[in-house]
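Severity: low
Component: inverse-folding endpoint
Summary: output formatting inconsistent between runs
Steps to reproduce: submit the following structure tokens with default settings.
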């Protein structure tokens, strides 16, 4: 899969931080895959101990359940990999999707607030949510991200560096300083 964020970089722009979703973003897929595989194990147990007359049917059922569990697990992995985000020197970029791709770009100069949300359980497993609020008051949230406090600090530091650069490049009014 091509790295769409790298392809979207403007001339001279560099990626400061690449982020990805935490494994907890696909917890439901993992849980379902384990549950389905457990049913497959039970079907094998029943085939060889309780119902030998239904052995072939139960073996085929368990194989089908193992394949289904694998498909569910792979789907979860794809869902996790489909979202990537990055902080560049001038913007926040997020790419969602595999076949239908959605790119969201937020210029850091227009970000007024960077919020951070993390529940008790999210703190324990190392995940959380970062929200960027733009100058129009429109929020953009990225849920279940890995190391959310680090991401927030990087975004805030990049915004500050960008503002400092702009202040240093603004010409001073020498007429008022006599």
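Observed output (run 2 of 3):
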């Amino acid at each position: 899969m091509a790295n769409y964020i790298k392809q979207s970089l403007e001339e001279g722009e560099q990626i400061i931080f690449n982020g990805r979703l935490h494994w907890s973003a696909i917890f439901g897929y993992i849980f379902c895959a384990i549950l389905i595989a457990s049913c497959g194990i039970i079907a094998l147990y029943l085939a060889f101990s309780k119902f030998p007359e239904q052995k072939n049917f139960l073996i085929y059922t368990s194989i089908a359940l193992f394949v289904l569990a694998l498909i569910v697990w792979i789907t979860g992995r794809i869902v996790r990999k489909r979202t990537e985000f990055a902080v560049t020197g001038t913007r926040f970029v997020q790419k969602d999707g595999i076949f239908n791709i959605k790119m969201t770009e937020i210029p850091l100069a227009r970000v007024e607030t960077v919020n951070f949300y993390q529940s008790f359980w999210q703190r324990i497993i190392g995940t959380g949510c970062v929200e960027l609020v733009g100058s129009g008051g429109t929020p953009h949230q990225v849920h279940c991200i890995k190391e959310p406090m680090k991401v927030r600090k990087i975004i805030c530091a990049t915004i500050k560096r960008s503002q400092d650069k702009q202040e240093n490049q603004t010409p001073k009014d020498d007429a008022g300083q006599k």
